[in-house]
Specification:
Length: about 190
């Protein structure tokens, strides 16, 4: 399940970038609408303004990210005992500039073939990275990203709704392992 979840989480983290490219290229739901012919005249069956496509794209991204939170239950469990964490750092600000770079890539790529190539390369790098599963949509759901360093010096990323401030008070009983360096909480 961990490999499937990592694939899904990687896809979700890049899905917003894909929608930025689709909007830039005017691949809108209107262009996918169905035309019907009635008495020799073609009529558009569905007409949606451009902003409707953008809203539907964003809702799709949010729903996919929401599904990743449901799939968490099948990951293996781990825990962090009280007193085992030496430092706590917020990681949202560290990941956001890299993520915004993906938007600039989506906006600057000129054709779909190049976008697919670049998107695939970024996907592979994120999938095989140890800690890069940042998805800003998690912030909408109230999750935060933290760098935790344990007493032995190992640095991990924890995605949680908890507010972590005091290292010696950090404790998790139902922490789900994405990989050896990235964890997400299943507690709501």
């Amino acid at each position: 399940m961990n490999v499937f979840y990592k694939l899904w989480l990687t896809f979700c983290s890049l899905l917003l970038t894909m929608t930025v490219y689709l909007v830039k290229e005017d691949v809108l739901l209107n262009s996918l609408s169905i035309y019907v012919e009635h008495e020799g005249v073609k009529q558009l069956l569905i007409f949606l303004p451009k902003y409707a496509s953008c809203v539907i794209y964003f809702i799709t991204v949010v729903c996919c990210t929401g599904l990743s939170m449901v799939l968490v239950r099948w990951l293996s469990e781990d825990q962090i005992a009280v007193g085992s964490i030496a430092t706590v750092e917020t990681a949202n600000d560290a990941f956001l500039p890299s993520y915004l770079g993906y938007f600039f890539v989506a906006l600057s790529v000129g054709d779909s073939g190049t976008f697919i190539y670049v998107f695939s390369m970024i996907f592979i790098f994120i999938f095989f990275s140890k800690i890069s599963y940042f998805n800003p949509v998690f912030l909408i759901f109230g999750y935060k990203f933290f760098h935790l360093t344990d007493n032995s010096g190992l640095k991990i990323v924890v995605i949680t709704k908890k507010e972590l401030k005091v290292p010696c008070e950090v404790e998790f009983y139902k922490l789900k392992r994405i990989n050896n360096y990235t964890f997400i909480t299943s507690e709501q």
